[in-house]
Fold:
Amino acid sequence: MRKLTLLLLFVASLATEALAQHEIKNIIFLIGDGMGLSSVSMMQLENHYEPTIFDRAENIALQKTYSLDNRVTDSAASGTALATGTKTNNTMLGQTPDGKDLVSLMDIAHERGMQTGLIATTYLQHATPGAFYACTESRHNYLTITEQLVASTIDVAIGGGMAFFEEQYGSKEVAEVKLNKAGYELIEDMETLKATKGDRRVMALLGAKEVGENSGSYLAEATAEAIRLFEERGDEGFALMVEGSLIDGMGHGNDAKAMQREMDSFMQAIEVAVEYAEESGDTLVVVTADHETGGLAIVSGNADFNLSEQGIEYRWATDGHSGQMVPIYLYGAGAERINGIMENAELGAKLKALISE
Structure:
């Protein structure tokens, strides 16, 4: 009996240690807008199959992207599913088809006392970032979404969108007054952001609309700065969403070279997040897409496979979105807890549950 008791205590201690190792304090959720498995394959191929950040994933799953009213989703419906754990119709943002407002990952994080953040290469009022704080029947209600961003619980926001603030409030000066009243410091360039301290909420509007394509290290720098600000602001944990927004645009344009540049920028941001997760030991990094764009196929340059290397070609099936499943790459604390083939809403619900534990 004594041996059995000791064995049970040993097993219990191992279980406790394993749980401690996988405690999730922070979530960094990176979404490559329009990034399909073929986009990832393209980057591996262009890297001559040397390991990429995707190859370093500790766990991998798949998600189905369809919306409630269409087998091919738009970014609003898929963003809503990922942000709230609930599917909705195309063009709807943070609402069910009957107009019920949904609770997002950022809402749950704020309720728990965690800090919250959004980063995008497009404007912050765009569909994917908007899904994490806005509730409206149409993703195109940019002025309403702007007001909801000002009133939101987001602590650090970095992206474009100044033009919508100026349109809604009449001028940049009035917009800044509104932001200051809401507790935000308005920042308009990366240098100022890097010099900013974490004693106030931050609204970094670095472009009139988009920050812009081919932005190089912008996403990685913004991710690093957001993490720095969170650490300066406190130790309560944080939830951060980072969107590689313009992968989608390059898919719409069927431009493989431009997509590679946007993918490279996105991958740099993933590197920053994974490095932080490895150092902190309590951060879960989730990388996925809202949908695939372009129907990209990677094919041989010659149909005769008896020949030696004939090169490859990138071919596109559409200039719109596709209905393909998209990958989920997981790193850090709790990476083993998301598995299999799931709905996009299942992934969103799982992330909300993980920070509610």
User: Anything to note?
Assistant: Residues 4-21 have pLDDT under 50 and may be disordered.
